[in-house]
Amino acid sequence: MSKIKRILAVIFEKKEVMVKSIDENQKNKEEVVPNKKNKENYLTVTELSKYFYLTPNELNNIFQKLNWSKKENGWLLMTKLGEYYGAKECYDNRTKTKDLKWHKLVKNSTQLLKAIEEFKKTKVEEHEVDMAEY
After folding, report:
1. Is residue 105 over pLDDT 50?
2. pTM
3. Measured between alpha carbons, how far is residue 72 from residues 75, 76, 98, 120, 124 in Å?
4. How far is the CA of 37 from the CAs of 28, 34, 40, 100, 129, in angstroms?
Protein backbone atom coordinates (compact mmCIF):
# COMPACT_ATOMS: atom_id res chain seq x y z
CA MET A 1 0.00 0.00 0.00
CA SER A 2 2.76 2.44 0.84
CA LYS A 3 4.47 1.78 -2.53
CA ILE A 4 1.28 2.73 -4.35
CA LYS A 5 1.00 5.93 -2.30
CA ARG A 6 4.62 6.84 -3.10
CA ILE A 7 4.10 6.16 -6.79
CA LEU A 8 0.93 8.27 -6.84
CA ALA A 9 2.69 11.03 -4.90
CA VAL A 10 5.54 11.05 -7.43
CA ILE A 11 3.12 11.13 -10.38
CA PHE A 12 1.09 14.00 -8.91
CA GLU A 13 4.27 15.85 -7.97
CA LYS A 14 5.48 15.63 -11.58
CA LYS A 15 2.13 16.93 -12.84
CA GLU A 16 2.33 19.88 -10.44
CA VAL A 17 5.88 20.65 -11.58
CA MET A 18 4.76 20.50 -15.23
CA VAL A 19 1.82 22.81 -14.54
CA LYS A 20 4.06 25.25 -12.66
CA SER A 21 6.60 25.29 -15.48
CA ILE A 22 3.85 25.99 -18.03
CA ASP A 23 2.52 28.85 -15.86
CA GLU A 24 6.03 30.27 -15.48
CA ASN A 25 6.59 30.14 -19.24
CA GLN A 26 3.33 32.01 -19.83
CA LYS A 27 4.29 34.63 -17.25
CA ASN A 28 7.70 35.03 -18.85
CA LYS A 29 6.08 35.56 -22.25
CA GLU A 30 3.67 38.11 -20.82
CA GLU A 31 6.38 39.98 -18.92
CA VAL A 32 8.57 40.41 -21.99
CA VAL A 33 7.73 43.85 -23.30
CA PRO A 34 9.22 44.61 -26.69
CA ASN A 35 11.39 47.68 -26.81
CA LYS A 36 9.05 49.87 -28.81
CA LYS A 37 9.55 53.14 -26.91
CA ASN A 38 6.17 54.82 -27.45
CA LYS A 39 5.54 53.27 -30.88
CA GLU A 40 1.99 52.44 -29.89
CA ASN A 41 1.31 56.12 -29.18
CA TYR A 42 2.21 57.22 -32.71
CA LEU A 43 0.25 56.52 -35.88
CA THR A 44 1.34 56.72 -39.49
CA VAL A 45 -0.54 58.89 -41.95
CA THR A 46 -2.08 55.80 -43.58
CA GLU A 47 -3.46 54.63 -40.23
CA LEU A 48 -4.86 58.10 -39.52
CA SER A 49 -6.34 58.34 -43.00
CA LYS A 50 -8.21 55.07 -42.48
CA TYR A 51 -9.61 56.51 -39.24
CA PHE A 52 -10.90 59.62 -41.06
CA TYR A 53 -11.92 57.74 -44.26
CA LEU A 54 -9.49 59.72 -46.41
CA THR A 55 -6.56 58.81 -48.61
CA PRO A 56 -3.07 59.42 -47.19
CA ASN A 57 -2.41 62.09 -49.85
CA GLU A 58 -5.57 64.00 -48.90
CA LEU A 59 -4.63 63.89 -45.22
CA ASN A 60 -1.08 65.04 -45.99
CA ASN A 61 -2.53 67.97 -47.95
CA ILE A 62 -4.72 68.88 -44.97
CA PHE A 63 -1.68 68.80 -42.67
CA GLN A 64 0.14 71.10 -45.10
CA LYS A 65 -2.82 73.52 -45.27
CA LEU A 66 -2.87 73.65 -41.47
CA ASN A 67 0.90 74.36 -41.62
CA TRP A 68 1.62 71.31 -39.46
CA SER A 69 3.91 69.84 -42.09
CA LYS A 70 5.80 71.05 -45.12
CA LYS A 71 7.18 69.38 -48.21
CA GLU A 72 10.89 69.77 -48.91
CA ASN A 73 12.83 67.84 -51.54
CA GLY A 74 10.02 65.31 -51.79
CA TRP A 75 9.95 64.61 -48.03
CA LEU A 76 7.23 65.59 -45.60
CA LEU A 77 8.77 67.38 -42.64
CA MET A 78 7.12 68.68 -39.49
CA THR A 79 6.90 72.35 -38.61
CA LYS A 80 7.02 73.86 -35.12
CA LEU A 81 3.23 73.85 -35.10
CA GLY A 82 3.19 70.21 -36.19
CA GLU A 83 5.60 69.32 -33.40
CA TYR A 84 3.24 71.01 -30.95
CA TYR A 85 0.36 68.87 -32.24
CA GLY A 86 2.36 65.65 -31.88
CA ALA A 87 4.32 65.13 -35.08
CA LYS A 88 7.44 63.00 -35.05
CA GLU A 89 9.86 62.56 -37.93
CA CYS A 90 10.98 58.98 -38.51
CA TYR A 91 13.62 57.53 -40.78
CA ASP A 92 13.49 53.97 -42.05
CA ASN A 93 16.98 52.60 -42.71
CA ARG A 94 15.72 49.69 -44.79
CA THR A 95 13.79 51.75 -47.31
CA LYS A 96 15.85 54.94 -46.80
CA THR A 97 12.69 57.02 -46.45
CA LYS A 98 11.61 59.75 -44.08
CA ASP A 99 8.04 59.91 -42.90
CA LEU A 100 5.92 61.62 -40.31
CA LYS A 101 4.11 59.91 -37.50
CA TRP A 102 1.46 61.61 -35.45
CA HIS A 103 0.56 61.14 -31.81
CA LYS A 104 -2.75 59.32 -31.46
CA LEU A 105 -4.24 62.29 -29.58
CA VAL A 106 -4.18 64.28 -32.83
CA LYS A 107 -7.46 62.50 -33.68
CA ASN A 108 -9.17 64.69 -31.10
CA SER A 109 -7.74 68.00 -32.33
CA THR A 110 -10.63 70.35 -33.08
CA GLN A 111 -8.59 72.25 -35.64
CA LEU A 112 -7.88 69.05 -37.59
CA LEU A 113 -11.49 67.86 -37.30
CA LYS A 114 -12.78 71.19 -38.66
CA ALA A 115 -10.34 71.08 -41.57
CA ILE A 116 -11.38 67.52 -42.40
CA GLU A 117 -15.08 68.45 -42.27
CA GLU A 118 -14.47 71.38 -44.64
CA PHE A 119 -12.51 69.14 -46.98
CA LYS A 120 -15.26 66.52 -47.00
CA LYS A 121 -17.91 69.20 -47.68
CA THR A 122 -15.98 70.57 -50.64
CA LYS A 123 -15.40 67.03 -51.88
CA VAL A 124 -19.16 66.31 -51.69
CA GLU A 125 -19.96 69.60 -53.46
CA GLU A 126 -17.48 68.80 -56.24
CA HIS A 127 -19.04 65.36 -56.60
CA GLU A 128 -22.53 66.92 -56.83
CA VAL A 129 -21.33 69.37 -59.50
CA ASP A 130 -19.79 66.50 -61.47
CA MET A 131 -23.03 64.52 -61.22
CA ALA A 132 -25.06 67.58 -62.35
CA GLU A 133 -22.87 67.94 -65.44
CA TYR A 134 -23.70 64.41 -66.54
Report:
1. yes
2. 0.63
3. 5, 6, 11, 26, 30
4. 20, 9, 8, 16, 48
